[in-house]
Amino acid sequence: MKINENLAISESGFLFNPTTGESFTVNPIGAEIIELLKEGKTDGQITEMLLKTYQIDSQTLQKDLHDFNDILKQHQLLEPNE
Amino acid sequence: MEKKHYERPHIIKLETGMPGKFGMRNDSPPTTHIDGVAVKELVAGYGSPLFVISESTTRSVYRKAYKAFSTRYPKVQFAWSYKTNYLSAVCNIFHQEGSWAEVVSGFEYDKAVANGVDPAKIIFNGPGKSTEDLRKAAENGSLIHIDHLDELYTLTDLTGELTRKPLVAIRVNMDTGIYPMWDRFGFNYENGQAWDAINKIMMSGKLELVGLHTHIGTFIMSAGAYGIAASKLADLALGIKQKFNHDIRYIDMGGGFTSKNTLKGSYLPGSDTNPSFDDYAEAITSALVNSGFKPDNLPLLILETGRALIDEAGYIITTVIANKRLSTGRRATIIDAGVNLLFTSFWYQHPVTPAQGFSQYREENALYGPLCMNIDCVRDSITLPLLNKGEQLVIHYTGAYNLTQWMQFITLRPKVVLIDQDSKTHIIRESESVTSVSGFEKTPDYLNIIK
Amino acid sequence: MNKPLITIGVTGLNAIDSPGPGVAVIRGLREATSFDVRIIGFAYESMEPGIYMHDLIDRTYQIPYPSAGADVLLSRLEYIQSREKLDVIIPNFDAELYSFIKLEDKLLKLGIHMFLPTISQFEERHKVNLSEFGKKYGIEVPLGKAIFDSSEIFALQKDFDFPMMIKGKWYDAYIAYNMEQARTYFNKISAKWGLPVVLQRFVHGTEYNVTGLGDGNGNTVAAVPMRKQFITDKGKAWAGISIDDKKLLAITRQFVSETRWKGAFELEMMKTSDNIYYLMEINPRIPAWVYLAVGVGQNIPEALTNLALGRNVEPFTTYDVGKLFIRYSYDMIVDRSEFEKISVNGEL
């Protein structure tokens, strides 16, 4: 899976998908994750980086990340690799 | 370097009409403290879920209600409705404030006596009094409100064995323009049943008719209906005066006032639209003052309001057990307090607030209790911050009926804590243990062996 | 002469095909001769067109839906007031009026004036109470009854006759031609809007509307009657013409003086073939077609603002008869960043 690279996220957490014309709001950690996905980081790398900055255990984080990925897929922000 | 507070990642699609960051500020601020005591501290000390009763709120709401009536009418008496909340600590707050007791069973009657209430200040209502209940109440000089003719005859028959004349009132039902009309309790006004019962009592000479009682329904959103009810009782009282030259001592308007809760399906919140004590007081007292009573001979006005006095003082503190996503993509939050503790969630949209501060992000949730039972839903749909497992929520306006109608179903019931006026906490009911349930069971010997 | 500058908050910016009155109200305020204005828009949703009309509205804030309750609304208005120093608010939605009426005293303490009907006027004119209302004030209304159970329709059919109107407490109305339909509509409406459901005798005739303003002491400050010329498939007027109907004006004045109506209103009237006027509905606010009243010489938004501020307002006595309003829609080009600001910050 791969994030749509054209996504524009503003500082206020407003996300616009130019391919579909849909708009979203995303919270700061969500924006951080999307930026990391755009940089091509793997889920493992992202988990590792977030564990360093946030007060959270790895189990909960992985569960939440998984759920977040599902929602990104549902909104067609994550696309299958070509 | 200190790590940042974690909030789970969240993304939400903006639809037309979807409120943005501000729209999400629609909800109330977090409830970090109740009467100056930190929610975290309460949970640490007493566990979760936890029922909390605020003594300050209980007293201040009572005083507001009393003032609404007593500033408009010279003789006012409240009687605490035991079925609404019969924890002794709660009852005794009301008794200290000057309330009599209003009971609807032999059990509640005994509880009121045990609380130290003068039997002459106990009103005994309801359709289910046993002969023994009637004998005891009559002998003690309590006020017996007769519900049906069978009860009237039973009590009349008992008088032969009694050392004193029973003090009675009749319960009257009537059309006050509200729906549904409660005609299953008492004697009907419009079709003459009530007048007939009054005549039977007066003619028999064996019972002392001291009052007239009505209770028009529950959660009545129209104060005007009480005005109609009060006028009809006043008419009956004046009829008694005319025919028998007998003065009744009191008119009991029952209860049924709304609390601040919002009924399911209402568009505007109940705290905005429900009538205030002043609205009810104005309707009732105007009707009585404008009726044919002589100014120096006004009957005592009794009110049995329960819900409106205690709902606001009750809280349930609950903890998030799990977050999950339903097949439709909706978010569901499971908490450790369900309909077993919150019977009233079947008809109210109880306000629910987080017990700690949160960012501005919110998500629409279904809020489920812990029971393995499909009915266990506290709120079908509520917008909440992004809660983590183990964080607390506070459910508001839970003081009425839940501590009497809660169910020992699937799990045990938690502690109830009272916060006094100095912000000190007291356990007023212990949490249940396995023996508080199975201790009453008896198993035949041959069923004690399962191997 | 220097005109005073007044800051006015206006709701109802949804100038869509079934429009809210806000944009029309603002156009009236912009054309006021007795003051200049700064307009603060209040929006519920980020796609309300008025938000993006910068020549009409200086700044817009999102406000919470009425279902959030008066306290939440108040705290939002306090925030807005701390930045904008509003003098007047003109609410334009039925559903929000209750909260604003409840907040009247508190807003006045913040320096915000309104000119709204009283709670009892607001409740009394409600669809559910219209029959009582007609009896009390001697105004002809169609026979109506609020019912709680569909079995009541059977007992009432000889009084009402078919066809009859079946109406919801808040919205929705259907014409039922037989018992079967009446029951179906009862169930449909009660499922959606709750009880009671209102039965109303069907009145054949031509529909007329009057918009006006009462000063709260029984005086009619403004009144302009209109006949719809063209309606959309939702039954909204897309064109209408001002008319001179003395009887309609007399009923309007009777309504205002009997009820001592305070604030703006719209009366929906039905005139039968034998010239009887029935009052069908009372809307306790300015209607979306109010700009016709402005255009024919009765600037109701301006007069309402002056009344709210406690100024003396001379009643209008004339208006141009035979003027039409014809509504049109208009496509604005809006940058994504504007949508972003209102969506994320709730302000633009």
Name of the level-1 CATH class of the largest domain in chain B = Alpha Beta
Q: What kind of oligomer do you see?
A: heterotrimer
Supply the CATH architecture of the largest domain in chain B: Alpha-Beta Barrel
Strand order of the largest sheet of chain A: 2-3-4
Radius of gyration of chain A: 13 Å
Can you tell me the overall shape of chain B? globular
Tell me roughly what share of residues is in helical segments of chain A.
Answer: 40-55%
Q: Please, how many helices of chain A?
A: 3
Domain tally of chain B: 2
Name the average pLDDT of chain A.
87
Q: What is the gyration radius of chain B calculated from CA atoms?
A: 25 Å
Strand/helix succession of chain A: EEEEHHHE
The structural domain count of chain A equals 1
| SS class of chain B | alpha/beta
Pair with the most extensive interface? Answer: B-C, 22 and 31 residues
Helix/strand-derived category of chain A reads: alpha+beta
Please provide a written account of the structure:
The complex is a heterotrimer of chains A (82), B (451) and C (348). Chain A has 82 residues and is α+β, with helices and mostly antiparallel strands. Chain A has one domain. Chain A has three helices and five strands. In chain A, strand 2 (8-9) and strand 3 form a beta hairpin. Chain A is globular and about 35 Å long. The relative contact order of chain A is 0.21. In chain B, strand 11, helix 8 (224-244) and strand 12 form a beta-alpha-beta unit. In chain B, the strands form three sheets. In chain B, strands 4, 14, 15, 16, 17, 18, 19, 20 and 21 form a nine-stranded mixed beta sheet that branches. Chain B starts with 10 loop residues before the first strand and ends in a 13-residue tail after the last helix. Helices cover 28% and strands 22% of the residues of chain B. Chain B has helices spanning 39-46, 55-70, 88-97, 106-114, 131-140, 149-158, 193-204, 224-244, 270-273, 277-289, 307-310, 402-405, 434-438; strands at 11-13, 33-34, 37-38, 50-54, 76-81, 100-103, 122-124, 143-146, 167-173, 187-188, 208-214, 250-252, 300-303, 314-325, 331-335, 352-354, 362-368, 377-385, 392-395, 416-419, 425-429. Among the domains of chain C are: 5-114 and 331-345, Rossmann fold; 143-201, Dna Ligase, domain 1 (2-Layer Sandwich). Helix content of chain C is 34%, strand content 25%. In chain C, a hairpin with a 5-residue loop joins strand 12 (262-271) and strand 13 (277-283). The mean pLDDT of chain C is 91. Chains in contact: A-B, A-C, B-C. Chains B and C meet through helix 9 of B and helix 2, helix 3 and helix 12 of C.
